[in-house]
Each structure stands twice: as structure tokens, then as C-alpha cells.
Design brief:
The structure holds three protein chains of three kinds. Chain A is α/β, with parallel strands linked by helices. Chain A folds into two domains: 109 residues, Aminopeptidase, CATH 3.40.630; 208 residues, 3-Layer(aba) Sandwich (Rossmann fold). Chain A is 37% helix and 18% strand. A six-stranded mixed beta sheet of chain A has the order 1-2-3-4-6-5, sandwiched between helices. In chain A, strands 9-8-7-10-11 form a five-stranded parallel beta sheet, with helices on both faces. In chain A, strand 7, helix 5 and strand 8 form a beta-alpha-beta unit. Chain A starts with a helix and ends in a 15-residue tail after the last helix. Helix content of chain B is 39%, strand content 24%. Chain B has a four-stranded mixed beta sheet with strand order 1-2-4-3, covered by helices on one side. In chain B, helix 1 links the parallel strand 3 and strand 4. Chain B is globular. In chain C, helix 4 links the parallel strand 4 and strand 5. In chain C, the strands form two sheets. Chain C has an eight-stranded parallel β-barrel with strand order 1-2-3-4-5-6-7-8, surrounded by six helices. A two-stranded antiparallel sheet of chain C has the order 9-10. Chain C is an alpha/beta fold. Chain C has two domains: 234 residues, TIM Barrel, CATH 3.20.20.60; 48 residues, no CATH class. The longest helix of chain C is centred in the last third of the chain and has 19 residues. Classes of the chains: A alpha/beta, B alpha+beta, C alpha/beta. Chains in contact: A-B, B-C. At the B-C interface, helix 2 and helix 3 of B face helix 1, helix 2 and helix 3 of C.
Chain lengths: 336, 99, 320
């Protein structure tokens, strides 16, 4: 790994810890090119300065493709600096969303996101005012329930998206199950549509960082991309014009993030219609709005189930207490 | 015949073509070629003909052409389909007889 | 891509076998190939353009040039290329994978059907392998409607056993048209090392050459791997030409003109050859039993050599 790190460093990028496979190119005994693969994401690509322009990335990508197929990934994504978008275009990738000078997300399936949109269109529901909520639900708490109810009070239809990455305390399958169970108990359930995770709802926790300098950059990059995908591809199909987000004073959702959200969903010049952002206001004496999932996780790790009971819906509590191993695919939702 | 799993054949070198196949409910073919203006239609036709010879009914087929000759297009599509299916292939019939 | 490609290389087109009359070369066989260029079967780009280099014979390689992962794809590239307008009219050899590999059978099926003129069998140790190959080719020719016997065989000799059994190998089938000495594996088998002088190959060269000549088939010398050392290549080519080798296996197109220059007759050789042939024809016309050129008697072998020299110039291009 030493020579890979050295090559990456010369290229001004870092090595993301989740890279499972590196394609390597040697000239004699010297390492002159590398390209990494983490799941279905191509990252950490570097070519020795003197060999740039020789299209060394093409055979590197071939190795990565074969490795990806062995690992069950026929479609690939790449997050890269925008100035490298051209290189990846020649390799068969097309841009989906870009934050200028910061990051671009590309995919190699010419009909990838269109296919996702087609699956979304099967879940269209008519309404005057259609809103959306995006949650991790790790686990699904009273705070989430409160958020959904508030959205449903303000809209005819609410689309709920469960983030798909499997990096949380609970697997995607478990989280999706908790959301579905929770919604099924809500009086508004007929107006709430739960969507499974997809590659097009981006999680900050798994966003590649190898080419970004610091935390604020990472944050701006992934929110920008995630929100553009949402506004540009997801919302138009479903007619979503409103997005609801909870504020949690002790969590990572900061004023900065909400400002980003407002910018990308409302103000940024995009062909897609703007989406109004609704920050959940604390109403009355209810503590429910401020139940944070991270607080619940801490309690769970400490084994304090009785304390957790006060903070989650009954359906979630039942699940936590009787937790069974879940087959993520069997629990439903689209994982691609 | 159906594409049953992901597969890839070919390269992005000049004069070659990269063909990627994946399972899908219907048959969908995407072709991008470095010589779209002069040869775009020819490339699409050769790909379609080759798929038809195999009787491919469903699958996603993505073709990235870098100026490959017809024989190369045919060969890479054949290879990708063969790699991407569990079904048996009648090679003698496909390779063809001598004139 | 569908525009017509003219054949730039004179190669083996436009040659009249009737002018060549020496030893057991049949009329349908040809002037032995001086340059045999290997083209990696996994390279679409090279398969598309190699005809431009003017080699006497091209050998599409499915063996050492192709990684295991690509064996299936390369086989299809080669089979489709053989059918293509660019290669259809040309005589092309294919080096299939070794008989003991899982790829051999599929390689043979594909390339015999697709029209390969010659099958080059690597690692030929004995005559049984050639007999087996002959049987399999016959079965495929019958199955696909190709004229039985039209596919020829070149045996690559790559081991001590192969060298020792070269004569039997050469005689093992009517399809045999050549023996090719392959240096790398042979030297490993012998625990020897490659050197510029080539002493380590001396016996193998002589043995394989004798076997080929005794059986009346062609004989090619080993690949010269050091592309940068053109002087060394030419020196080796001149040496093996003198021994009697018909040519060499090549791995880089740059070696082709170098080799052809070594094998081309000089102007004076060509002039002499024309005189000899003219004298032979005149003697035949006048019913004379003896041919004389410049006051000296000239017999059958010299006439044959003269005819071959002229054919070389005619079939392969101008003299040096």
C-alpha cells in the first residue's frame, strides 16, 4: 500500500478507507497508475504526471470493471473533481450532478437514473401539495414520526425516502422495516408513500472524501450533489414541491446545512422547479420534535431499553426488543 | 435467450469496443461511438444483428465504440453475451460455415 | 469501417506457383514464408491493421499473447477477423492453445470453421499429437463443409523431445507444411540460456532444419525478443539464412523489412538466376541435355535455386 499512498499523495488526493480493490499499473517496477473501487464507486484514481494523456485510465478501469463484476456490481459510479469529469466521460461515464469546483457525481449506465425515475413514476400520487421527507431512521423515533405527521398536516401527499446505505447501527432492511411499521400505525398512512433507498439518495456518511480537503468541503459536496439529484430527478417525477426537515439542536444538522438546502432546492438556477424547504418548528410543549436518533442509539448501546421506550413509537420498540436478523433485500425497497 | 448476469467484454482502446451487458426485463441497447456522424447507424445495425443472431430477448446492452471494425463489434458483442448468460450457445451455428 | 480495404502488402498474393520447382513443394504450396508475424489475438486494434505491415504470413495468436481471462473473447476476435473483408483473401495461420489446455478444443472448432489456412500447434512433442490434431481437424472440416485436407499444420518445436522427434513430427500428416523452432520454452526445457551467439540453439536449429528439409517442408527460426537490438537481429537472421532456414517468427513489424532485406536476392544473384533459367528453357526447347551458363555446366539443383530466387523477387518484392 505504501507505493499507492505515495502515488495518491503526489496526485494530491488521499486514500479512502473503504477502497476494497486497487487496479495498479506498473512501468517496470515503478507504480505509475492506480484506480480504486469501493462497492460500486470508482475512486482514488491517480496517474503519474509524465503518463497523463496516455489513456492509462482505460486499462485501469477495465481491471476495476472485472473486479466490480466479481463483487456483483455491473454498474459503476464515480465521484471526482469536476475537472476530471472529461476523463471519465471518455471512459463511458456521464455526469448526474456537479458542485462547481468541488465535486461531480457520474454514472456509467446511460439509462441508470432514467430507470430509477421510471420506477418512481409507478408511485405517483395525485395531490395539490406534495411533500417529501428524507430520513435515515436509525432507528425510527418519535421525532421521525412527528416530522412525518407535521408534513402530512401540511400536504396532501408525503413521500418518505429511506436512505439506502448500510453503514448505520441498523441495516437498511431493518430501518426500512421500522419506517413501514411506524407509518402503518399512523392515521395519515394512506397519504404517506414510503420509498426504499437508491443510489440516487446520497448519504453523507459514505460520501467519498479522497479528493476533498476538509469537513466543510465534504459537507458542501455531498449536500450539493444529493440535493441536485433530489430536485432535478426525483422531485419532478413525483410532483414534489415541498421538503420537510427536522432541526435537532444536538446533532450534525446545522444552520449551515439548512442554508445549503435552501440554496440548492430553492435558489440555485436549475431547470427543475424550486422546492420549498420547511424546517420543523417546535410546536407547543411536545418534546417529540427533539427526539434525536443519536440520543436513542446512545441509550441502546448503554442497554437502557426502558428509556428508549419513551422515545420511539411502539412499533419500533417492538422491533428493537425482538430484533431478528433481517435479510435486507427481503425487507423490500430498491437497493440499486 | 436472456442475459442472466453482469458481464463485460472488449476494451476502450482505439479500434476496439467495450460491451457491457446486464439482466433486464426487456431488451435495451445503448450505443455511443467515437464516430457517430459517419458510422453511428452502422454500429447500431451490427450490434442489433449480432444480438438477433443470438436471439437475445432481454438484457441491458451498453456499447462504447472507439472506432471498431464490424468484425470486432461482432466479436465483442458475442463475447459479452456469452459471458453474461448461463444458457448454452450453439457456436458452430454462430461462427458460420465457410463459403 | 465498411469501406473497402485494398491489400497494400504484396505478401502472398499474385504469385504463380508453377515457376517454382524444387524438392517436394507441391504446386499448391508456396514459397516458404520468410516473415511470420505474430499478432496478439486479444488486440482488436492490431487485428484490424496488421495486414498493412507486409509480412509473408500472419499468425494470430491465441496462446501466449492472450491472458486466461481473455481466451474466450480473443477466440471470437480471431474467428470474426478471419471472416472479415480485410483478412478473407489472405492466408492466415492461427496459433491455438496447447493440446493439454481447456481452450484447445474450442479454439480449433472456431478457427477451422472461420477459415484459418494453417493451425500452429504449440509444444509439439511427438507425432501422436500431430495425428490427433489431424483427426480433429478432419472432423471439423467435414462438419462445417470445408474441403477436407485444406487446413494445414505447422508444428512448433519447443522442447528437447520435440527436437529429437522432429522428423517423425514432420512426417506425421499430409497437412504438415512447416516446423517452427520456438526458443524460449525449448531453452527452459534444456536449462540453457539465450545468448547472442546462439550456441545453445545450435543443435536444435540443425536438427529441426534437417527434419524439415528431409520431409520437404518449411522451417522457421526462433523469435528475436530484443526489439531494440536490430543489429543482433540481423546478424542472427543472416546466420540462420545461411544454415538454410526459410525465415523467422517475428513479434514486431519493425523486424519485417530487416528480415526481408536479409532474404532478398542481390541484383547480381538475380541476374545470374535469370541467366540460368533462360539457359534452362533454351536447352529444353532445343532438346539439349546439358545447360551451360557462362561456360560452366549447370545442373538441376542450381536451376531450381535460380527459379526460387526469381520467384522470391516476383512474389515477395524487389531484390535488394
Amino acid at each position: 500500500m505504501g507505493e499507492v499512498d505515495a502515488l495518491l499523495e503526489r496526485a494530491g488526493i488521499a486514500r479512502d478507507a473503504d477502497v476494497e480493490f486497487f487496479a495498479l499499473a506498473h512501468l517496470g517496477t515503478e507504480l505509475v497508475g492506480c484506480m480504486g473501487l469501493a462497492g460500486d464507486v470508482v475512486k482514488c484514481t491517480a496517474v503519474e504526471e509524465s503518463l497523463r494523456g496516455t489513456n492509462l485510465v482505460a486499462p485501469l478501469l477495465m481491471e476495476v470493471r472485472y473486479a466490480a463484476i466479481e463483487r456483483g456490481h455491473g454498474r459503476l459510479f464515480v465521484y471526482a473533481r469536476p475537472k476530471n469529469a472529461r476523463v471519465f466521460s471518455a471512459l463511458g461515464f456521464r455526469p448526474l450532478a456537479e458542485v462547481p469546483d468541488l465535486a461531480v457525481l457520474m454514472e456509467d449506465d446511460p439509462r441508470g437514473i432514467e430507470r430509477y425515475q421510471a420506477s418512481l413514476s409507478a408511485m405517483v400520487r395525485q395531490g395539490e401539495r406534495i411533500g417529501a421527507v428524507v430520513i435515515n431512521a436509525n432507528p425510527f423515533t418519535l421525532g421521525h414520526e412527528y416530522l412525518l405527521r407535521a408534513a402530512a398536516a401540511d400536504c396532501d401527499i408525503v413521500h418518505v425516502f429511506v436512505v439506502g446505505e448500510d453503514r448505520s447501527l441498523y441495516t437498511y432492511g431493518e430501518r426500512f422495516h421500522m419506517v413501514n411499521s411506524g407509518v402503518a400505525q399512523m392515521p395519515e398512512r394512506d397519504r404517506i408513500v414510503v420509498h426504499g433507498g437508491s443510489r440516487y439518495v446520497v448519504s453523507g456518511s459514505t460520501f467519498p472524501q479522497y479528493f476533498l480537503k476538509d469537513a466543510p468541503d465534504v459537507s458542501r459536496a455531498y449536500t450539493g450533489i444529493d440535493l441536485q439529484l433530489f430536485r432535478g430527478y426525483i422531485a419532478p417525477v413525483l410532483g414534489i414541491r415541498h421538503r420537510f426537515v427536522g432541526t435537532e439542536p444536538t446533532s450534525e444538522i446545522t444552520a449551515q446545512y439548512n442554508a445549503e438546502m435552501t440554496y440548492w432546492l430553492c435558489d440555485a438556477p436549475m431547470a427543475a422547479p424550486p422546492i420549498e424547504v420547511h424546517e420543523l418548528q417546535r410546536v407547543g410543549a411536545a418534546d417529540q420534535a427533539f427526539v434525536s436518533a443519536s440520543k436513542v442509539r446512545a441509550l441502546l448501546r448503554a442497554g437502557r431499553l426502558s428509556d428508549v421506550r419513551r422515545l420511539v413509537p411502539a412499533t419500533t420498540y417492538d422491533f428493537l426488543v425482538h430484533k431478528q436478523p433481517w435479510d435486507a433485500v427481503g425487507a423490500g425497497g430498491e437497493r440499486s | 435467450m436472456r442475459i442472466t448476469h453482469d458481464a463485460v467484454a472488449g476494451t476502450l482502446e482505439s479500434g476496439d469496443v467495450l460491451v457491457r451487458v446486464a439482466p433486464d426485463e426487456t431488451l435495451g441497447v445503448s450505443v455511443s461511438t467515437s464516430v457517430e456522424a459517419q458510422y453511428g447507424d452502422v454500429v447500431r445495425k451490427v450490434v442489433a444483428t449480432t444480438l438477433a443472431e443470438f436471439g437475445v430477448e432481454s438484457g441491458s446492452v451498453i456499447v462504447e465504440d472507439k472506432g471498431a471494425l464490424d468484425c470486432t463489434l461482432r466479436a465483442r458483442v458475442q463475447a459479452a453475451v456469452a459471458r453474461g448468460t448461463d444458457e448454452q450457445i450453439d457456436w458452430p451455428a454462430l461462427i458460420g460455415r465457410l463459403p | 469501417m465498411t469501406s473497402s480495404y485494398g491489400v497494400l502488402s504484396a505478401g502472398n498474393a499474385g504469385f504463380d506457383p508453377a515457376t517454382v520447382q524444387f524438392s517436394k513443394y507441391s504446386d499448391s504450396a508456396l514459397i516458404p514464408d520468410r516473415s511470420v508475424l505474430f499478432v496478439p489475438g486479444s488486440s482488436a486494434g492490431m487485428l484490424s491493421t496488421a495486414w498493412i505491415y507486409g509480412a509473408d504470413l500472419y499468425t494470430f495468436d491465441l496462446e501466449d499473447a492472450v491472458a486466461v481471462r481473455e481466451k474466450d473473447s480473443a477466440r471470437l476476435l480471431v474467428a470474426n477477423a478471419l471472416h472479415s473483408p480485410q483478412w478473407r483473401g489472405l492466408r492466415v495461420a492461427v496459433r491455438v492453445n496447447g493440446m493439454d489446455t481447456p481452450f484447445f478444443a474450442d479454439d480449433l472448432e472456431a478457427v477451422v470453421r472461420a477459415g484459418a489456412a494453417i493451425i500452429r500447434l504449440p509444444m509439439t512433442h511427438d507425432s501422436h499429437m500431430i495425428e490427433e490434431l489431424d483427426r480433429r481437424i478432419t472432423a471439423i472440416e467435414r462438419a462445417c463443409g470445408r474441403e477436407v485436407g485444406s487446413t494445414q499444420i505447422t508444428a512448433a518445436i519447443e522442447s528437447a523431445a520435440g527436437v529429437v522427434k522432429a522428423r517423425e513430427i514432420a512426417e506425421a500428416s499430409q497437412r504438415m507444411v512447416g516446423l517452427a523452432l520456438a526458443g524460449f520454452d525449448y531453452l527452459m526445457d534444456m536449462h540453457a540460456e539465450r545468448s547472442r551467439g546462439g550456441t545453445e540453439l545450435f543443435y536444435a536449429r540443425c536438427a529441426v532444419l534437417h527434419a524439415a528439409r528431409a520431409s520437404g517442408i518449411a522451417c522457421q527460426d526462433v523469435v528475436w525478443g530484443n526489439i531494440g537490438d536490430e543489429e543482433g537481429f540481423v546478424a542472427e537472421a543472416e546466420m540462420v539464412k545461411q544454415l538454410g532456414f526459410d525465415g523467422k517468427s517475428l513479434i514486431n513489424p519493425r523486424q519485417i523489412p530487416l528480415l526481408h532485406r536479409v532474404y532478398a536476392p542481390t541484383e547480381s544473384e538475380l541476374r545470374f538466376a535469370r541467366k540460368v533459367v533462360a539457359a534452362a528453357e533454351e536447352a529444353e526447347e532445343r532438346g539439349l541435355g546439358v545447360i551451360a551458363v557462362d561456360g560452366k555446366m549447370v545442373d538441376g539443383p542450381i536451376v531450381a535455386i535460380a527459379r526460387r530466387t526469381i520467384a522470391y523477387a516476383a512474389g515477395h518484392g524487389a531484390a535488394r
